[in-house]
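Re-running the complex after MR caught last week's input typo. The corrected sequence lines follow. Everything else is unchanged.
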Amino acid sequence: MSDSGLDTQIQLIALAITVVFFVFILDLVRRRRLVERYALLWMVAGFALVVLAVWRDLLDVLSDALGIAYPPNALFIIAFGIAFVLLLHFSVATSRLSEETKILAQEVARLDSEVRAMRTGQANGDPAGGQPVAPRDPEAASPVDPSSASTTDQ
Amino acid sequence: MNDAELRRLAIVPALNEAGMVGRVVRDIRREAPDFDVLVVDDGSTDDTAAEGAHVLRHPFNLGIGGAVQSGYKYALAHGYDVAVQVDGDGQHKPEYLPELARELHTEGAADMVTGSRFLEDPGYKVPIGRRAGNMIFAIVLSGIVRRRITDPTSGFRMTNRRGIELFARDYPHDYPEVEAILMLHHHRLRIHEVPVRMNARGFGRSSIDYPRSAFYMAKVLLAIFVGLFRRRPVPADGAAPPPNEDGVAPSAATAKEG
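Corrected-run output:
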């Protein structure tokens, strides 16, 4: 912190990297590779980096408040904490996606078998289909209630 | 309902078992002609799918839990009263089906009848690792369920309408047999074991190798532990189990492997 010229240089580099990062995130959204929800998340993270780069004293204030003697450690702890929460969030999202994918694949298999049975039935001149189809339990058809599935999506 | 009027389904989960499934299907037809046969082709890359009578084709591999659950969903949708799992790799002998069915009906005390390798001499040498794992699960489960379970990893099991409804709605992911027993227990469905012999798995996939089995072991034990704290509504006799409070199948909470 004594050499202010070096400080400015590293601050400029941090700013430049953050700008590139922002442009990259926005481009991902533009190409529909990243949904806005996660883009916002990463942009907030990028913004936090900019604030820390520009406002040098903030890190000292933060580490003082946390009772950490060496300010860079505060940075690592905060960064690790955020990364940890993010990864946990993604694990949860992946679990939900895999469950939904399973249900979709099972539905596809069911529909596929029914279509084939109907085709066989029509080929045999039986419009009702080739196999007995009992009335379906409406709840069995939708193991995931769409309304509640979307509420888990926050 | 008269036994003769019951509709019975054999669910045959199969993954790349083109050589074997046809034989399994024929054996079921011969040994237990009152069973309809459903082959669940779990995303095979060979022509496994071509051999069954009724076939459900998964567009990609879901694992044994997803395959078996597809079968139970089919059984529920088509109004079957009895469903039995018979592995597509030839491990389970269809000659036991009449006996399993007898135990399910005449006993009247069981909602699921499992064929157990360990009630009597298994008839073949079960690999030591698998046997040890089986024993740990057996001890843990027997303690929770408060009755003796000798073969919790056996997938050779037959269940009635209540079991079909339960499993169609919610079935664990991979290596699901152990958790399924716990689910039955939580729903107050009764489990009964009968001694069977099985063929040594020698065909197709050998589903468990060593580093994996340690992972499965930990995973299933975790699932059992978490399952103890999961509220499951107890369905009334004959009534369909109500959906879970959150509407999403509880197994979604367990991260899928890979």
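None of the earlier attempt is carried over here. Chain B touches chain A at residues 40, 54-60, 62, 66, 69-70, 73-74, 76-79, 168-170, 240, 243, 246-249, 251-256 (CB under 8 Å). Residues 234-258 of chain B have pLDDT under 50 and may be disordered.
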